[in-house]
């Protein structure tokens, strides 16, 4: 897999204002926000899509969601509500082929989106 923008962010090659980081994941604000709060939580491990997650990645995927909940609380949207989204492949809107979890909130969110 070629190095992606998110892979370069996760490795520290491209600096961003990290909101959270540990040995497994990093979190930062989306540069094209779709809500008042729009964060991305990404694994440091390069996993292209949700289809590429393996059984040995189960703890990592769980950790992504734990960090998302922590970030939602830190951003003040945990109680009012937030959405987590993983887009898988182009037909679902995935544009960067490095697995990432969107955390959106800060306003009422419609379902279906649109």
From TrEMBL:
The UniProt record lists the keyword Hydrolase: yes
TM region(s), chain numbering: none
Active site: 100 (tele-amp-histidine intermediate)
PROSITE patterns: HIT_1 (PS00892), HIT_2 (PS51084)
One Gene Ontology molecular-function label: hydrolase activity
Motif Histidine triad motif in this chain: 98-102
Keywords attached to this entry: Hydrolase
Domain HIT stretches: 5-114
PANTHER family cross-referenced by the UniProt entry: HISTIDINE TRIAD HIT PROTEIN
Protein name: HIT family hydrolase, diadenosine tetraphosphate hydrolase
UniProt source species: Thiocystis violascens (strain ATCC 17096 / DSM 198 / 6111)
């Amino acid at each position: 897999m070629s190095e992606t923008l998110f892979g370069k962010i996760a490795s520290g090659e491209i600096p961003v204002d990290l909101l959270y980081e540990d040995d497994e994941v990093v979190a930062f604000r989306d540069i094209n926000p779709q809500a008042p709060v729009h964060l991305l939580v990404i694994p440091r491990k390069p996993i292209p899509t949700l289809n590429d997650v393996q059984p040995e990645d189960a703890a990592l995927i769980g950790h992504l969601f734990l960090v998302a909940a922590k970030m939602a609380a830190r951003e003040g949207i945990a109680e009012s509500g937030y959405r987590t989204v993983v887009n898988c492949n182009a037909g679902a809107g995935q544009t960067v082929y490095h697995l990432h979890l969107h955390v959106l909130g800060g306003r009422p969110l419609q379902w279906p989106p649109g």
